[in-house]
Each structure stands twice: as structure tokens, then as C-alpha cells.
Amino acid sequence: MNTTYDVKLSGIQHRTDRETPVFVARWRIAGKQKSKSFRTKGLANAFMSDLRQAAKAGEEFDIASGLPVSMFARKSIGPSFFEFAQAYVLGRWNASAARTRETDAYALLTLIPALVAAEPRRPAAEELREVLRIHALLPVKRRSALTATQTAALSWLERASLPLSALGEAHVLRTALDAISVTFAGTPAGANTVRRKRALLHHLLEHAVEQKLFGSNPLDEIKWTVPKAVTVIDPRTVVNPAQARQLLDAVPNVGRKRGARLKALFACIYYAALRPEEAADLRLRNCKLPETGWGLIVLEKARPQATKRWTNSGETHESRSLKHRADKETREIPIPPVLVVMLREHIAEYGTAKDGRIFATGTGGTYSSSAHSYVWQEARRLALTPEQAASSLAARPYDLRHAAVSLWLNAGVPAPEVAKRAGHSVDVLLRVYAKCIDGQQEQINSKIHDALGT
């Protein structure tokens, strides 16, 4: 390394002649012009401040890179965890659903601030998370402008982030695992949350292995017990047909119009086992509703809710392919006469939205999950006893789907057919609903008795 003390700092130039305007920091090392571009003036100022402090401290500068020796050492050992994580999440953007983008970012809000060096003047934790949430983990065109305080926080993260190579050390990985084991408030995190965040870290390191930055995934070498998550349905949440009818009958009594507009949507969740986001995107062309007898729903899309910054459209709801299905793949669900009648009555009363959606607000929008939850909780209060309302019985609208699948299984519908209608694989179906398959013990015992010939 050739070094020098001959450093002259110039200034910052705002270049607007490019597709994306940038701020260019300029300085000279041993008479050679150097420059570095930044997205914001604040980042450029912070970089020039680092150079200025190094020069005042009498630090040598590397002639080839133009950086102080300390900064060059950090740069030469590869990308920082922050840089790699940022590239990772943005590289997956186009192929990911909005909720996946949000889940990835949520995990990185924990990991990036945790994997840093002990640099002075650390910003508050919420400031670091906010600058990641609204700026650093979004594509350039979606990033919010940063305040001076936020710019300083981002600059601090860029300086303090550990090199990705440091994750090859067990104690660094344990720092990451400790971080994902608690909430932002410092309380123990739920098992599902911990598992999702660890999965993101594991996948990110697998990506690093693909790029030859690690010979193998260092996380695989850490002896750390992943918390067990609940993967089976609690039978206490499952309503019987009489209770389901009572709840659905109570829904129209909530509010002036909202409850009445949502009754048939909740009925689709119960009688057809639709996911709420599938019901939200159900369109008239997806339904065969004869005047008598069974009908048919042919699902094409779902309409999940996500934070606007993570969706393609910038809207809270947008259509996407069905969960666990290829693009344009459909799912057919025969529906009983009671649901056919409800859908026909709903369409006759409220019509459809301009795009053909059956369930829409009075202005053609999509009801939020909070609206669903409010109406459902009020319906539970009206339809259930105080003890039942205080219990986990049908605590969420989604529990109607669990009740539907449980009913079909207990009615003797073959598991492959139930899985096909519900949009599950058979193995997931039987594992998740194992505790809800009830009422067949005598029949099974009888079959075993006959087989034994006793």
C-alpha cells in the first residue's frame, strides 16, 4: 500500500445531469483527483467530515483508493453486513410479494442495527429502524427524503456496520440470534417471529455462500435451538355449524351498512374455506350461482393487505396469484346452496365494484383487516355467551376457515379432496388439523376389532 499525508479536500458538487441526481465529494491525494458519489448531500457531507477528521488526526491516506488507512482497511475486507443485506433485499424485490418484502425488511430492522461496531454517537434504536424502513431498504424511486438527523443516522450505520465476513465468527452470529429473540421493546419475541427472522438470516448467508463469500453457511455450525412454533389448529377456536350460523346472522347487525356488506364475505370463509384475502378478490366471473343446488367458485387471485411502501402499486391492497400456486393457476371449490343464496342476495343488493369484485366498500374500495376484525368482534359479542366471547372460540375471521376444513374432514371427505378445495398439500392439511379430526374413534376401533377377528 502506497500512502501519503498530502491531502487536500475540495468540496461537494451537485450533479443534476444524470438520471438520478447525486452529490459528488471531491478531494486530492498526492495531487491526484478523487471523487465519490452519494444519494444525498447529508451523506456526502458525512463522508467529507470523516476524511477531514482523519486528516486532522494525522492519519495516512492510501493513494490508490484515496481513503484514510482505517477506512481502506474496512473497505478491503469485503462488503459490510448492511451493504450486503441492502443488496439482498433489493435484489429480491421484483420476485417477491409485498408481504414477503415487508417480512424481510422487518427482520433486517432487527439484524442491521445489532451487527455494528461500537462507534461513538450511536443514534437511538428507533431512528436507525426508521431510516431503514423508509429509505435504505426501499428501491431508490420509493425512498423518502431524509431529515438531517436521519441522514446522520444512515451515515452512522454505513460506518459502523460490521463486515459481512465477521459473521463467520460464532460470537457475532450469537449476537444476531440474541437480537432476533427479543422484540423492539426488549421482551421475549414469539416463536414464529424468531423463526421467520432466523430463516431470513440463514437465506441471506446462503446467498453469500453462492457468491463465494463463505465456503459454507456459518449459521449451520451454531448450536442454537430454534423455538418451537405452534403449527396445529387449536380445537377450542373451531365453531360448530350452529355457532357459525349464529355468528353469520349477527354480522348484519353491526354498524349501519358495514356488517351487512361483510356477511357474505365471512360466509365464503366458512362455507368455502376461502382465505380472507381470497374472498376480498372474488369476482362475479369466478362464481357459478345457479338458482337451485350447488354452485362453484373458481379462484384466480387473492387480494392481501400490506403496507403501501411494499406494494407494487403503492396501494394497501393489490391482486396477486394464489398462495402456494403458480401464476394464473386456479382453484375450484364447490359451494353449498346456502352460500349460493347468500352470494346471489349480496350481488342483488350491492352489485359489484367496477372491476367485478363482489365485496367492496360503498366507494368501491377494499375493506381493511381492521374493519373485518371490528365487525367480527362485535358479531361475537352479539352471538356468543359472555364466556364464549371471552374465550378463543372463533376469535378471528380466519378461524371460520379452520372450522370449514375441520367440518369437511370430520364429515369423512377424503383428505386429498379437502386439501384440493382448501389450497393445502395433504401433508400440511393432516399435520395442521390433526387435533380437529374428532368423532371417529368408535368407527376406527370397530375396524381394528374386525381386522383382529376377535
Automatic annotation (TrEMBL):
BP-aspect Gene Ontology terms: DNA integration; DNA recombination
Biased composition range(s): Basic and acidic residues: 315-327
Species name: Nonomuraea maritima
Keyword Lipid metabolism appears in the UniProt entry: no
GO function term, MF aspect, one: DNA binding
Domain Tyr recombinase: residue ranges: 233-446
Disordered as annotated region, ranges: 307-327
Family matches, as PANTHER family: PHAGE INTEGRASE-RELATED, PROPHAGE INTEGRASE INTD-RELATED
Protein name, UniProt field: Phage integrase family protein
